[in-house]
């Protein structure tokens, strides 16, 4: 694949600067445009306040909080097992992945560990929710640029994944399947074979999207060199996940930290891209879906036997203490800082969700872009409103 | 004699003494047919588009209203008609009400100059005999036919532009700014590619253009060397605001653009105009480049010979359907260009290509008119290509110098 040369990037930035200066000379009056809270391209109720000069953004700021549901406070009046049904709804497209870090934090406080089979199944479901989440992103990408077909392909193939999650957990969107010390149930019969077939289909879907969308010249011209985030800026703004890897930072919590999960038992590649533009972010996610299908396949092959639930008391009281666990969720790093006073429920939970940090870069990255690029850049940063507002 | 008759939109073919009721009846019939084709065609176009796109996207599409969902558009129209008609407080009320008609009426009127059929057997040249009168299957055949179409499509730009401007709201304003720039710059490419056809046909009248394409090799698609056709197709897509050039109403960016503030029947008029324009411009494309209602003969075999005088109409429909399908296909596949990329494509690619090709064709035509020898022809073509090459070099040099200046300015900034 060809990469944007430094000269091209400089030229792009310089031309925009020249435009901006021209407009200052002409002293044209700007216009403030509210993109959202109700706008077809904000996936919910994010509001971007943009100061425009013609179609060019001179200043932009995200305004979150239109969908704040107070989850951090709500966890304080629930018992530990009840919390998972709440935090499922943070990133609603990859909900199982939300449960895992919280449960791991609680387990860390209780000093228990799930049995190996439970860890395996957790990892598989975690990766499946990543596929469901990012797979939909790949389809949605086209819609943000006016190509409506990919999203239907994505919905079609996400359906297979949701069926798998439903088959294992009973819930399509909000599984609430994770328990402190293991899982609610073992896998149903025939699930493993079915999953293998679905993974094959999803690799086909990735190829299809790569042909239909990533190979499209208009798509490339809309994403290459647009919204470039250099690595140091990405680090400064606390980006995580694919957004960070697309800026060339080789950082993946699945590989870089040791958790009682099964990622260390499989062999996978962490994709990075040096460009840091919208294209890189989309491309890294595409590769991630592929990697995830491979991880699932490997885990299915090495599935250990045994129980899926460790021995835990019927009434769970988490001992006093504080714990921080974060995992590499579909949207980036998601972590829970759990403070327990030895009661039935947590004393305080701080949720670090990936999208909130990921959109914090919008004022920086949206400066000087055109209105259509706002949409592309936001789409490529990939946020989920529930994940921003919690 | 006939020129003084008070018959509206009279056809020069109706040159006869006994004009009393027959010409009137014929014109009345044609108006009715064109009107019905316009409306029903649009209705089916909406259905067709939704159904085809649905098929490409693993969906079923409309299937509840009527057989195969054919009446879905009618149901939508009725629903829109009974919805509340909102006029924004800050709008310019008169222009706001006028704009939908400025978009809708030209879309309808384009149909009046499209040859809709005819009998092309036995050298009848597309004329048919109705009520003892020989006429063309075409509402009007003004000598300036194609120019009329261009003028009408320019008026339609006003509809879109004024709609966005008069809404008194920001997203429509952005849409209307885009619309005016986009449609005006693509009109230039459209006109230049059209000029090649007009030069080949030697006439502006649509019936004349159709008559000039009586064999496959005479189809302007081939006789003008495909390039004007491609330019016309792209420019027309932009002119119609169809994907991938639908920036004017880009839903994800500017929330519907110029028609954001419109509701009820005024919105329906825009919607109708858009789809009617798709059909009528496809018909124009077919008329200009693919011989309109002329049959495509395989040897001397005419696929629609059994239909007799309606064969021409069947051919036209077939060809138009081909393009309607292509448009739907575009829509299902392609992402949208960005505004500045669109302008780049229009000014830096389409207009130079159309202009260069037109000059080449003009030189060839000149050679043909002056009966040049074979050597003369070859020299002409070589000289022409050299000139075009120099022009291209000049053009790229201008672009690169401009870009370098911009870079330098930016670096100084």
Write up this protein.
The complex is a heterodimer of chains A (390) and B (413). Chain A has 390 residues and is of the alpha+beta class. Helices cover 50% and strands 12% of the residues of chain A. Chain A contains 16 helices and 8 strands. Chain A has helices at residues 6-26, 71-74, 80-87, 95-110, 116-144, 149-169, 191-214, 217-223, 231-236, 242-245, 253-256, 278-301, 354-359, 362-365, 371-381, 385-389; strands spanning 31-35, 47-53, 56-63, 178-179, 182-183, 321-329, 332-340, 348-352. In chain A, the strands form 3 sheets. Chain A has a 3-stranded antiparallel β-sheet. A 3-stranded antiparallel β-sheet of chain A has the order 6-7-8. In chain A, strand 6 (321-329) and strand 7 (332-340) form a beta hairpin. The two termini of chain A are 38 Å apart. Chain B is mainly α and 413 residues long. Chain B has 2 domains: 22-363, no CATH class; 372-413. Chain B has 13 helices and 2 strands. The longest helix of chain B has 39 residues, at 374-412. The A-B interface holds A 10-11, 13-18, 20-21, 31, 33, 39-41, 54-55, 142-149, 152-153, 156, 212-213, 216, 218-219, 221-222, 370-375 and B 53, 56-59, 170-171, 174, 177-178, 243-244, 246-247, 250-255, 331-341, 403, 406-407, 409-411, 413.
Order of helices and strands of chain B: HHHEEHHHHHHHHHH
Largest sheet of chain A: 3 strands, antiparallel
Order of adjacent strands in the largest pleated sheet of chain B? 1-2
Determine the structural class of chain B based on helices, strands and strand pairing. mainly alpha
Radius of gyration over C-alpha positions of chain A, nearest whole angstrom: 22 Å
Radius of gyration of chain B: 23 Å
Total strand count of chain B, please? 2
Ends distance of chain B: 73 Å
Portion in beta strands of chain B = under 5%
Report the helical percentage of chain B: 55-70%
Q: Quaternary state, please?
A: heterodimer
> Number of helix segments of chain A?
16
Topology pattern of chain A, helix = H, strand = E: HEEEHHHHHEEHHHHHHEEEHHHH
Shape of chain B: globular
N-to-C terminal Cα separation of chain A, in Å?
Answer: 38 Å
């Amino acid at each position: 694949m060809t990469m944007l040369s430094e000269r091209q990037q400089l030229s792009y930035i310089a031309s925009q600067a020249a435009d901006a200066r021209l407009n200052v000379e002409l002293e044209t009056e700007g216009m403030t445009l509210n993109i959202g809270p109700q706008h077809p391209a904000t996936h919910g109720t994010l509001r971007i306040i943009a100061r425009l000069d013609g179609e060019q953004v001179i200043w932009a700021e995200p305004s979150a909080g239109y969908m704040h549901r107070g989850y951090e406070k709500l966890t304080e009046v629930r018992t530990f097992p009840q919390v998972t049904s709440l935090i499922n709804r943070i990133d609603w497209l990859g909900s199982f992945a939300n449960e895992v870090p919280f449960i791991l934090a609680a387990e860390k406080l209780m000093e228990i560990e799930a049995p190996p089979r439970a860890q395996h199944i957790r990892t598989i479901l975690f990766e499946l929710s990543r596929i469901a989440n990012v797979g939909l992103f790949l389809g949605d990408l086209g819609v943000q640029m006016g190509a409506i077909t990919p999203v239907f392909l994505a919905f079609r193939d996400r359906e297979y994944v949701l069926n798998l999650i439903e088959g294992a957990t009973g819930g399509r969107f909000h599984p609430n399947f994770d328990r402190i010390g293991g899982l609610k149930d073992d896998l149903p019969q025939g699930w493993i074979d079915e999953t293998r077939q679905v993974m094959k289909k999803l690799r086909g879907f990735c190829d299809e999207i790569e042909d239909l969308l990533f190979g499209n010249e208009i798509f490339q011209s809309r994403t290459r060199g647009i919204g470039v985030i250099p690595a140091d800026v990405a680090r400064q703004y606390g980006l995580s996940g694919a957004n960070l890897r697309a800026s060339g930072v080789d950082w993946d919590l699945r590989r870089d930290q040791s958790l009682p999960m099964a990622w260390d038992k499989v062999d996978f590649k962490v994709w990075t891209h040096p460009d840091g533009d919208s294209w890189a972010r989309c491309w890294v996610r595409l590769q991630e879906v592929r990697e995830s299908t491979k991880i699932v396949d490997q885990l299915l092959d090495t599935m250990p036997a045994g129980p899926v639930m460790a021995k835990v008391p019927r009434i769970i009281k988490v001992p006093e203490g504080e714990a921080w666990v974060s995992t590499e969720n579909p949207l980036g790093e998601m972590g829970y800082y759990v403070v327990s006073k030895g009661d039935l429920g947590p004393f305080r939970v701080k949720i670090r969700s990936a999208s909130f940090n990921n959109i914090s870069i919008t004022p920086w990255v949206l400066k000087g872009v055109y209105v259509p690029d706002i949409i592309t850049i936001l789409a490529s940063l990939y946020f989920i409103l529930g994940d921003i507002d919690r | 004699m006939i020129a003084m008759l008070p018959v509206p939109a009279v056809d020069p073919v109706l040159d006869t003494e006994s004009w009393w009721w027959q010409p009137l009846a014929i014109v009345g019939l044609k108006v009715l047919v064109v009107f019905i084709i316009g409306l029903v065609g649009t209705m089916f176009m909406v259905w067709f588009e939704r159904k085809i796109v649905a098929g490409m996207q693993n969906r079923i599409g409309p299937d509840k209203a009527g057989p195969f969902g054919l009446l879905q558009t009618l149901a939508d129209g009725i629903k829109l008609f009974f919805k509340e008609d909102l006029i924004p407080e800050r709008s310019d009320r008169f222009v706001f009400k006028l704009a939908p008609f400025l978009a809708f009426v030209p879309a309808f009127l384009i149909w009046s100059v499209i040859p809709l059929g005819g009998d092309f057997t036995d050298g009848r040249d597309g004329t048919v005999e109705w009520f003892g009168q020989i006429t063309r299957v075409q509402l009007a055949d003004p000598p300036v036919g194609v120019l009329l179409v261009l003028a009408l499509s320019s008026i339609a730009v006003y509809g879109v532009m004024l709609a966005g401007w008069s809404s008194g709201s920001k997203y429509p304003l952005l849409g209307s700014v885009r619309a005016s720039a986009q449609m005006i710059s693509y009109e230039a490419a459209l006109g230049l590619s059209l000029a090649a056809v007009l030069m080949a046909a030697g006439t502006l009248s649509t019936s004349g253009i159709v008559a000039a394409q009586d064999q496959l090799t005479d189809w302007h698609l081939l006789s003008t060397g495909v390039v004007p056709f491609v330019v016309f197709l792209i420019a027309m897509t932009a002119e119609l605001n169809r994907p991938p050039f639908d920036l004017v109403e880009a839903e994800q960016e500017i929330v519907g653009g110029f028609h954001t503030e419109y509701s009820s029947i005024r919105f329906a008029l825009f919607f109708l105009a858009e789809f009617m324009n798709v059909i009528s411009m496809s018909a124009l494309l077919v008329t200009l480049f693919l011989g309109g209602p002329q049959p495509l003969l395989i040897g001397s075999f005419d696929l629609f010979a059994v239909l007799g005088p309606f064969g021409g109409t069947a051919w036209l429909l077939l060809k138009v359907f081909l393009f309607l399908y292509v448009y739907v296909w575009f829509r299902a596949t392609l992402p949208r260009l960005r505004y500045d990329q669109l302008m780049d494509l229009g000014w830096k690619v389409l207009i130079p290509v159309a202009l260069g090709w037109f000059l080449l064709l003009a030189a060839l035509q000149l050679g043909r008119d002056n009966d040049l020898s074979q050597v003369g022809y070859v020299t002409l073509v070589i000289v022409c290509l050299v000139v075009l090459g120099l022009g291209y070099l000049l053009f790229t040099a201008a672009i690169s110098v401009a870009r370098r200046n911009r870079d330098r300015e930016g670096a100084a900034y």
